[in-house]
Predict the 3D structure of the following.
Amino acid sequence: DPRQDIALVATGQEPQRATPQRQRVMEAARSGPAMKASELAQMAGVSASVVKGLVGEGVLEPVALPAFAPF
């Protein structure tokens, strides 16, 4: 039973407060494919709470990544 990973994508909505940290997350989210929250936070140089706040505001939304079956 392969497990699905959850990644985040930008919805196109702007955050209520556009702090420099949030701007970096948005730039990272728009620059490439869907990423896990931890990867997005690391790429933007912010804590996971910044990413979670953007998910809570609807600026980022979770999407299921296809599961890889074990060999």
Notes: Residues 20-31 form the longest helix (12 residues). The two ends are 12 Å apart (CA to CA).
